[in-house]
Amino acid sequence: MTGAVQEDKRIRRTKKLLRQALTRLMQQKDFQSITVTDVVREADINRGTFYAHYRDVYDLREKIEAEMIEDFRELIADLHPSGTSNLQPVLARAVDYLEENREIVRALVRGTGVEGFGRKMITVLEECHLEMRPFRSVEDAYAARFLATGIVGMMEKWITEPQPILKNEIVALINRVLTGNLI
């Protein structure tokens, strides 16, 4: 049994090294120009080890994004937003998660823009908003997309700023925009 636990630790460590390597490389150059050779050299691992887990750098990025979106989805689900219309705890949790993963999120947002990671975050927030509404109309669906797109846009701006405002300030700002008290 110890071998399986040890293997899991090695696999987690390898995946972490690859994630960190990809993050550093995406901060240095366009994703399209990153090769498997670049990643394994940066992570200081064997090429065969890379291919034991991923098909190519696109697969690596896709799996990192999928894992992060799943983590994000679970964090939000833990708040049990059903039956309440208060997005404040969801926003606070989302901002905490983004801050904890700032470097990789910044790289993913820059590397794929709204078509990739940002679009996936929009979908999660949109679903969260719709779960809060017991009766859904066509307007609810459009409003959910509008709100989720705006929230993710503000979060993307915040996460990519060289000198971002404090996280409690961005949560308060998003909340003011959502409640119409910005002006």
Report what the structure shows.
- Keywords: DNA-binding.
- It comes from Agathobaculum hominis.
- Residues 12-72 form the HTH tetR-type domain.
- This is TetR/AcrR family transcriptional regulator C-terminal domain-containing protein.
- This protein has 183 residues and is an all-alpha fold.
- Helix content is 75%, strand content 0%.
- It has nine helices and no strands.
- Helix 1 (2-28) packs across helix 6 and helix 5 (88-100) runs antiparallel to helix 9 (167-179).
- It is elongated, with a radius of gyration of 18 Å.
Structural class: mainly alpha
**Low-confidence spans:** none
Helical amount? over 70%
**Count of helices?**
9
**Mean pLDDT over the full residue set:** 83
> What would CATH call the class of the largest domain?
Mainly Alpha
Provide the CATH architecture of the largest domain.
Orthogonal Bundle
Strand composition percent: under 5%
Radius of gyration: 18 Å
Number of strands: 0
DNA-binding region: 35-54
Domain HTH tetR-type: 12-72
Protein name: TetR/AcrR family transcriptional regulator C-terminal domain-containing protein
Keywords: DNA-binding
Secondary-structure topology with pairs:
Blueprint: H1 2-28, H2 36-43, H3 47-53, H4 57-77, H5 88-100, H6 102-112, H7 117-131, H8 138-160, H9 167-179
Describe this structure in a few short sentences.
The chain is mainly α and 183 residues long. The protein is built from nine helices and no strands. The protein has two domains: 54 residues, Arc Repressor Mutant, subunit A (Orthogonal Bundle), CATH 1.10.10; 127 residues, Tetracycline Repressor, domain 2.
